[in-house]
Amino acid sequence: MGSASALSAGSVYYAVMANRGQENEERATSGRNFCKQCGSMLWLFMPQWPESILPYASAIDTPLLPAEEMGVIMLASKPDWVRLPEGKKKTFEHYPDESPEQWHKRHGLWIE
What is the pLDDT of residues 26-42, one digit of tens each? Predict the structure, then answer.
């Protein structure tokens, strides 16, 4: 697994999802964490999977196994002009029900 040396987060951002600046403003429940030095996204926290920190791919500094298929999420909010990537993929209208830990365990990739 990759090292966590880059996980010295500087700030957490909860995106505005609807009604920006209004009393009924809706914010995302997931928190995006950024590097205090350069502002790059490092990792994401999601309350439905409190045991997991989801690193942004470019923050992982060790080689990863090549993916056999791609996961494409949040299609319900995808603009019409955005094309899906080519190749084998599994698509989701929102986030999948399976946590990253469950996915890794199902594929025999989980390391205790």
Answer: 877 778 888 888 888 88
Number of H-type helices and E-type strands within the chain: 1, 8
13-23 pLDDT tens trace: 666 677 777 88
* Contact partners, residue 55, CB within 8 Å, separation at least 6: 2, 7, 42, 43
How many Å apart are CA 21 and CA 27, to the nearest integer?
11
Phi and psi at residue 57, in whole multiples of 5°?
Answer: -55, -40
How would DSSP label each residue in 48-91?
Answer: TSTT--EE-GGG--S--PPPSSEEE--GGG--TTPPPPSSSEEE
**4 has pLDDT over 50:** no
* Cα 93 to Cα 3: distance, rounded to the nearest angstrom: 31
Rg, C-alpha atoms of the chain? 16
